[in-house]
């Protein structure tokens, strides 16, 4: 007697179906928004709504492809998610949003940098926080002083550039 071999039954991939739905929603929003743009294509037929429509149809194609692959079970098995690093990054983004108009771009983005570095394994926040603030201040200086684009200025920016 032969023993029946366990068959690898492929199940639908719910996470991939959620990703496909997200792609379809983004494509739908892009198509809806491009329909509201004035189509000033002129003689060539290419106007401001053309590229968003092409991208939206590309996203719809990717969504359909993802649905087919999810239903066939073609996606490889994913490893378990490591939650603490994700929470560090989310906390860094939340801190940046809360601190941006209080402490300015450099300090708020330095906190985001330090929290993201912590998520990637750098546990010494006393080292990564100043490094992040220095990098963020350099970015702020380029955008604000050289390119004349507005980024929120805080005490650090006002200290080094009093007119900011």
Could you describe the 3D structure shown?
- The relative contact order is 0.09.
- The chain has 2 domains: 14-72; 83-160, no CATH class.
- By secondary structure, the protein is an all-alpha fold.
- The longest helix has 23 residues, at 14-36.
- It contains 6 helices and no strands.
- The termini are far apart.
- The model has no long low-confidence stretch (mean pLDDT 87).
Summarize model confidence as the mean pLDDT: 87
Structural class: mainly alpha
Biggest β-sheet description: none
Shape: flat
Strand content: under 5%
What is the helix content?
55-70%
Note poorly predicted spans: none
Kindly state the number of beta strands. Answer: 0
Count of runs of 4 or more consecutive helical residues: 6
Query: Over the alpha carbons, how many angstroms does the gyration radius reach?
Result: 24 Å
Give me the strand/helix succession: HHHHHH
Number of domains: 2
Our measurement of the CA-to-CA distance between the termini, rounded to an integer number of angstroms, reads 85 Å
Features:
164 residues, mainly alpha, 6 helices
Topology readout:
Layout (H helix, E strand, L loop, with lengths): L13 H23 L13 H23 L10 H21 L1 H15 L5 H22 L8 H6 L4
Provide a short characterization of the protein structure.
This protein is an all-alpha fold and 164 residues long. The chain has helices at residues 14-36, 50-72, 83-103, 105-119, 125-146, 155-160.
